[in-house]
Amino acid sequence: MTGPVTGPGPDASLPRCPWATSTPDYMAYHDEEWGRELRGDAALFERVSLEAFQSGLSWITILRKREAFRSAFAGFDPETVAGFADADVQRLLADAGIVRNRAKIEATVNNARAVLGLDGSFTELLWSFAPAADGRRAPRTPADVPATTAESKAMAKELKRRGFRFVGPTTAYALMQATGMVDDHLADCWVRKYRTQSVPTDT
What we know:
Layout: H1 24-32, H2 41-54, H3 59-64, H4 66-72, H5 78-82, H6 86-93, H7 102-116, H8 122-127, H9 150-161, H10 169-178, H11 190-198
Helix pairs in contact: 2-7, 2-10, 9-10
């Protein structure tokens, strides 16, 4: 694909990033969440966890199970998840609503404990790796969007140093894209154009 595409469904005439048009779930996620700034330790812990669960799977699988994940992991409250014991792991392994992968479940519990062990906020740590200004030219096609960057490699390295699991450079960059640390909406995507035109100017 060479650039934004349109349809199907509501607002079908709006040009979107190609990956967003295959299902209504993707379309809503693209239009309302992906690439929009997200802060807050619980919210970011959820995104880190879901990106880790997505490894090796399609994101639509995770997206459609997100409410089940939230229920299973106590709304991704780090303090609560950090207190999960072996019985909780067994409960999660029996929960058909989520991805029943022991290594990823145990990594999520481990990562919650790592969040609590930080000497500052999780939000501040993650956002410290966001480029001061996303100075890259807006990608025109999916081929222009990288899988990793120097910043995502640095984030993954630091998270690993602090005891986090299942957060490699590719996962870290997907997190950066999803939470607005970088803007990878294609140049002619309506979301990017709308946000650019909506930024207030100093008078």
